[in-house]
Amino acid sequence: MSTGSAADGKANGGNGEAAGASIQLEGLTKHYPGTPAPAVDNVHMNIKAGETVILVGPSGCGKSTTLKMINRLIEPSSGRIRIGGEDVTDMDPVKLRRSIGYAIQSSGLFPHMTVAQNIALVPKMVGWDNNKTKNRVEEMLDLVGLDPAEFRGRYPRQLSGGQQQRVGVARALAADPPVLLMDEPFGAVDPITRDHLQDELIRLQHELQKTIVFVTHDFDEAIKLGDRIAVLRERSHIAQFDTPEAILTNPADDFVSGFVGAGAALKRLNLSRVRDVEVVDFPTVTTDDPLQKIFDLLRSGSTNEVLVLDNRRRPHKWLRRNDLGLVKDSLARAGTPVNDTVTRDATLRDALEAVLTDSSGRVPVTGRRGEYIGVVDLETLMNSVHELLEADRMDAREHAQELAEHKARQTSEEQEGL
Ligand SMILES: Nc1ncnc2c1ncn2[C@@H]1O[C@H](COP(=O)(O)OP(=O)(O)OP(=O)(O)O)[C@@H](O)[C@H]1O
């Protein structure tokens, strides 16, 4: 496969050299033997050179099958694949795969090879000499943020999950392929590492400008990483193929809205803080209060639950009217411990998680020294999220209207020859 000639096919990196290659899928179909319907049915897709395109969709919709047809790990039943303008549908698949980087979940590293040997694999296969390969391994380790001196001689089992994923990406990029295919590469790592790896990929892509096709079922990940997102329904039918902004503000149909809705709400929860919502008061007593006072409060009928604070006014446990039977001469054995607290700086997502895991359906909000301030409950959170999303929709509508007015003005100016 040529990697630098097709006129329509190349993105220019910062130094003016060719980087990514365009990809065209033309009527791509996969019918697995013995199955009644195709897993991927007649996909047409035009991916520009240097673009990051995310395939997102429900489990089993055909994302991986579509991706693996691009490097012919799965042979298409019909249709054509062009890379950099060149038809690669019938070329030797082994040769093809050497020119396409491929990174998968759980890194796919060979356990019996060191990090350096894993990364050197494809450069060696395509005939790079030892010196060039060795330099490339060091360069790649640097690129993915791993110190070569420390990591080149290690075996995969001596790395954390996140480090293994980094080496997986380094290996995929080692022979400088114009195209990188990534199949849920960060699916198996914890959320914080995942966030870091996503940031790294954005940084790398800024530098390298490869063409990346990336599979995920996580819409938030798609929004974060994609220049364009293809939302797929069953059999890889494209429900919408557009920029993240366009999909968020203008989903094509109910299926896409379903994906966006959940994603948008969660995204919103991450961007808002407890201090943005109403923190309400809740009946409290302290462990120093006389038992009679607590009994009276719970029996008065005004509330059937109180929050017990310790002697430094920190939330300690929830005490319900039904627990009173266990209160003999002290509170020690009665009530349910407070699971979690949040500060005013916590995100609404943290607050929601705390509310959902606490049997009381609310979470105490605390100040700098852990002292009780109030509570946030599920209803307040739900209302706030609805209000925030409604405000977002209004903004999007206003923005769309401004754009439409701007376009109309431009057209009329053009017609008047201004
Ligand atoms: N080798 C196979 N033989 C028969 N059917 C297969 C084969 N591989 C995948 N399928 C079927 O093809 C469909 C698409 O599978 P694919 O793995 O591409 O989906 P996906 O969108 O990547 O799913 P997930 O998000 O769960 O990984 C599924 O219905 C799956 O059961």
The major β-sheet equals:
6 strands, mixed
Could you say which structural class the secondary elements and strand pairing correspond to? Answer: alpha/beta
Q: What is the CATH class designation of the largest domain? A: Alpha Beta
CATH topology of the largest domain: Rossmann fold
Q: Which spans have pLDDT < 50 for at least 5 consecutive residues? A: 1-18
Gyration radius, in Å: 28 Å
Spatially, the strands of the biggest sheet line up as 8-9-10-5-11-12
Number of individual domains:
2
Overview of the molecule:
The protein is an alpha/beta fold and 418 residues long. It folds into 2 domains: 10-255, P-loop containing nucleotide triphosphate hydrolases (Rossmann fold, 3-Layer(aba) Sandwich); 275-381, Roll (CBS-domain). 39% of the residues lie in helices and 22% in strands. It is built from 13 helices and 19 strands. The protein has helices at residues 63-70, 93-98, 115-125, 130-143, 148-151, 161-173, 191-208, 219-225, 244-249, 254-271, 291-299, 348-357, 378-415, and strands at residues 10-12, 18-21, 23-30, 40-47, 52-56, 78-83, 86-87, 100-104, 179-183, 211-216, 228-232, 238-242, 284-286, 305-309, 315-320, 336-337, 342-343, 362-366, 372-377. The protein has a 6-stranded mixed sheet, sandwiched between helices. A 4-stranded antiparallel sheet has the order 4-3-6-7, covered by helices on one side. It has a 4-stranded mixed sheet with strand order 13-14-15-16, with helices on one face. Strand 13, helix 11 (291-299) and strand 14 form a beta-alpha-beta unit. Helix 3 (115-125) crosses helix 4 (130-143) and helix 4 packs across helix 6 (161-173). It is globular. The two termini are 48 Å apart. Mean pLDDT is 84; it is low at 1-18. The protein binds adenosine-5'-triphosphate. Adenosine-5'-triphosphate is lined by residues 32, 35, 39, 57, 59-65, 217.
